[in-house]
Amino acid sequence: MDDETYNGVKKQVGIAFRKNNFAEVLKLRENIPNEFGLLVTGFARNSTDNTSNYTPYLFAEYWCLTEPCSEAHNLAAALLYGSYAFIDGAYTLAFWHEAKALSFEPDNLAFLNTITWLGTTPDCGVALAEVVPYAKRMLSFDPEHNWSKTIVEWFDESTRS
């Protein structure tokens, strides 16, 4: 994709965001399907005050509800643990969005890697038992994935006694 096309779509998305016209933003996705997630997260990162600009995240939630797919849920998760991590509960909700993304693409290693990381961060309110199935799934692809091995070991130790 050339810069002119990307910048034209970016400008149109910005206008649609200002109008809270999420249906229009979703239509614009067709013009840049491979770069769309980065474009939306860019709006979140480049706002002058992230604490008051929730439009990109609200759009992601809209997308999850109107066209449920892995890309929508992964975008919502990325916005939550990236741009909106300061919100209480953001990591927990991001975990569940990533879990939903995995329900569409169970073999997506990037999603598996992210969910195992998210589920063990101090800010994530998810029980270790919820993370273990994802860690075991990751180990089925990569038996040497150290973080997943650690998660399973922690769980095994916590259930002994």
Q: What does this molecule look like?
A:
The chain is an all-alpha fold and about 160 residues long. The longest helix is centred in the first third of the chain and has 16 residues. About 30% of the residues are buried.
Largest sheet: none
Uncertain spans: none
**What is the overall pLDDT average?**
91
Name the shape in a single word. Answer: elongated
Oligomer class: single chain
- SSE topology string: HHHHHHHHH
Q: Over the alpha carbons, how many angstroms does the gyration radius reach?
A: 17 Å
For the record, give the distance between the C-alpha atoms at the N and C termini, rounded to a whole number: 58 Å
Précis, in short:
By secondary structure, this protein is mostly helical. Helices cover 68% and strands 0% of the residues.
